[in-house]
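Dear colleagues,

As part of the handover before I leave the project, I'm documenting each prediction I ran so the next person doesn't have to rerun anything. This entry is a single chain, and its sequence is reproduced below.
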Amino acid sequence: MAINKFGNRTQCCIGAILGALCILATQSTNAMAEPKHGISMHGDLALPADYTHFPYANPNAPQGGKFAFGVKGTFDSINPFLLKSMRSHARGLWSDSELGSMVYEPLMIRSRDEPFSLYGLVAEKVEMNEERTWIEFTLNPNAKFSDGHPITADDVIFTFDLLTKKGRPPYSSRMKRFEKIEKTGDLKVKITFNEKSNREYPLIVALSPVLPKHAINIETFDKNSLEPIIGSGPYRIKEVKPGTSITYEKREDYWAKDLPSRVGFYNFKEIKVEYFLNESSRFEAFKKGIFDINPEGNPENWRINYDFNAVESGDIIKDHYEVKTPATALGMSFNIRREKFSDIRVRQALTYAFDFEWMNKNLYSNAYTRTTGFYDGSNLSAVGQPANEKEQELLASFEDQINPDIMAGTYQLPKTNGSGQDRKVLKKVFSLFKEAGYKSKSGKLIAPNGEPLTIEMMCQTLNQERIALGYQRTLKKLGIELILRTIDDAQYQKRSQTYDYDMKFSAYSASLSPGAEQVWRWGSRSKDVEGTFNFSGVANPAVDAMIDAMLNERTRENFVYAVRAYDRALMSGQYMIPLYHLKNRWVARRNYIERPEQTPLYGFQYQTWWDKRAEK
């Protein structure tokens, strides 16, 4: 053994230094790791630890009464965690965009008045180190399932394991980013993340459901069933009429009714969701009083179709709010898994061929604003914004994939004269097709493989069909056959899930804190996985890199720049023909359905509304 000439003193010094380094490393790893009542993606929480309720909820809302909600479609399952029922399970059970989580609950709940902040629910406290390499949940000791069984750490670990083996995306892949998950107490669960994780992932994990280990048969869990699973939420299922309706009744013994994050929520004694085959039958049912509120997305309908007696008498109130979040990216998606759309020049040509001005004037009385990017109407949008130094740095390795006009902030979608046959624009369209190797022959546009270009457009609603018919009219002038395929909801969901279409209408809601959900919309990992929202089949390294960048930014300022860079990468790919958006949202409601005065950042939250008749 070699002995250092300075002997033990040096060894002691080295040992002391190494010890100090270990202490510093431990301090760094555990910095800010103290129990908190909530977590935020960027910056501080808006509400203090002693908050009494969310600011957009009315703590004095009357309890009782009924609420009926009407939706288009059908359902064949009440298990929202299975792939086969991903888009055909009953509404309101779990993480519903309008009705919330009435039967199954997450560890933590999102405040809709902040970009991305979570507060305690099943987990009353949370600890997380500054690097976000681990998170520890402390469960609320009062949390119980509807059968009275307490929720424990075993239930949390069981749920992650169950959904990994039997669940649908994204739940089936969540543990791929875990280094380990461990029980650190009867009411404590700690998750340590591996190198695949990012700064947002602990928050995504916190939004995971908790299911009862004692009440689930693992072998039969993935069978599409109408047999309800026990949940911990404020409602239990009262009645199921498959494909027609589902009725929920409020639990008088709901464990979280006095929890600050639930005060003023779920005020109705009974909630019924009615299903209708199409929009026209749904609207007629609303007029007849079969259900209580009708969110309206068509400005022409709002302007001319709400002149019936119930509106004139005041029995129905026309309500609205101003949109404060990025516009929903509504468009017609190209399925680039198909060879006909593999050339970006073809996608660009087909985008130029869509005459928005004609459609807006003739179908909607110029009520809509054209959508350009994926975050229009917010500071996250790259539209009209030249890329700054940070964005240029993020996109430097992908310079050849980003449209120079998009980088410069000068990019605009073509504007026509609204005639439906603007020669200047059509000339540009032909030029792009020619560059891509297409030729015009006998009134047909012929692809490089010698076949006429034919496109099938999958539609679900009459409004989609109207838009597609206008587009079909223009494409016919170019020698392109557009076949419209309007199908029922079951077929539509199946074909969407398996990517069995040329083009389809898609709507991507946008938040002020986009994150991991983008992987399942546009990331390479989701391209060949059934049941994702990557309808276009995108697998682009630039897009993947920008998703990673925005997930790992620590400051709000740099996060905004990362999202703008992401917006530029998506726009440059020409993956969908952007349609339109509105600056306001409209809702018609029965006059006995009341709402809080304050509208949160993300708009109306029906979970906080109530029945005025319950006051009497």
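Residues 96 and 102 are 9 Å apart (CA to CA). The first strand starts at residue 38 and ends at 40.

All the best with the project,
I.
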